[in-house]
Structure formats: C-alpha cells, structure tokens
Design a protein that fits this description.
The protein is of the alpha+beta class. It is built from 4 helices and 10 strands, in the order αβββαααβββββββ. The longest helix is centred in the N-terminal third of the chain and has 22 residues. The radius of gyration is 20 Å and the shape is globular. About 10% of the residues have low confidence.
C-alpha cells in the first residue's frame, strides 16, 4: 500500500514540476523587432517601448528617446504623452530614466528584449502581458502598437496591431512598421 502512495506522489509531483517549469522558464525572453524610418522634421522621431500587465498597468520600459524622457515632455507635452503618464515620468528618479533612455534610433531594424522582469528587476509570474509602443510622427500625429504575449509555456509569435491618432496617417510617413513580437 505504501508503494502505491509513493508512486502516486512521485507521479503527481512530476506532473506539477513539469507544468511549473513550463510556466517559469527563465531562459525564455520576449523579443520585439521592427523597422524604423526617421523623419526629418521638428517634433518627430520620439518613441517609447514598454510592457504592461493585462490590466494596463506599467510593468517596465524597454526604451524611450532621450529628448522626451529628459525634459522634452515639458517643452512638448504631446511628446510620448501616453508613455509619460504610464511610466509616471514626473516622479521617476534620474536612475530610472537613465536606465531606459537612449538616442533617437537611426533608420533600420530595431530590436528590444524583455526578460520577464518588472522595473525593479523582480521576475514576474507566467501570464498575459502587453507590449506597447508610442511614437510621435509629427507633433500631435502619433502611431501606437499593441500586442498581447503570454509568458510561460510554448514559444509564440505575434504581429499585434498598429494604430494611429488619425486614420489618414497610415498612408503617410510612418516611423515604425513590420513589428514582430516573439516569445522564445
């Protein structure tokens, strides 16, 4: 009788550890790639890439252009206004801002990787997360990207959805295109 209980215990614990390891695979990452085309204009080329939880709460920022993050949002309040609010830029420390900002990207393919951690470096549980992007095409003209990704489990790829602050912008100059989000 004890052998049966031992066998059952080993079988159940093996199943749970297998499921747990699928959900909590620290080697897997979320990789975001896209084509970037700079526009030669004042009030353009600002971009932020960040992660939210399923409820829309900011988890971490992967990248934001230095101009906006280092005070440009005060000079131009429309510059990355959605990200600025989500990130709580007004109350962010210099270290937090420095950790995610960089120069405006040169035209070409861009890539960012998310390691499944929040902005303080804490590993997050398996589940659904949202990859977000916001870019200023020209002053108030903006484009956005949103894609759901489930961390934990099988590899996946999604193209998400690009939207614009005005529908006619889709046929003009765009800053990013061909966005691909991979969990692998």
């Amino acid at each position: 009788m004890k052998k049966h209980y031992l066998f059952l215990f080993l079988l159940i614990s093996g199943c749970f550890s297998s499921v747990f390891s699928m959900q909590k695979n620290p080697e897997k990452k979320v990789i975001i790639t896209y084509g970037w085309s700079r526009i030669q204009s004042h009030g353009s080329n600002q971009i932020a890439v960040w992660i939210e939880d399923a409820r829309g709460n900011h988890i971490c920022t992967l990248f934001a252009t230095h101009f906006t993050a280092s005070g440009g949002y005060i000079k131009r309040p429309l510059s990355l206004s959605e990200w600025t609010e989500k990130f709580n830029l007004k109350n962010a420390s210099n270290e937090e801002v420095d950790a995610v900002t960089g120069a405006t990207p040169k035209s070409g393919e861009q890539s960012f990787t998310w390691n499944g951690k929040d902005r303080s470096g804490k590993a997050l549980p398996a589940g659904k997360y949202i990859v977000r992007m916001e870019a200023n095409i020209l002053d108030a003209d903006k484009m956005f990207f949103r894609a759901e990704v489930r961390i934990g489990g099988d590899d996946q790829t999604t193209t998400g959805e690009i939207t614009y602050s005005s529908p006619n912008l889709a046929s003009g100059n765009v800053l990013f295109k061909d966005v691909l989000v991979k969990y692998q």
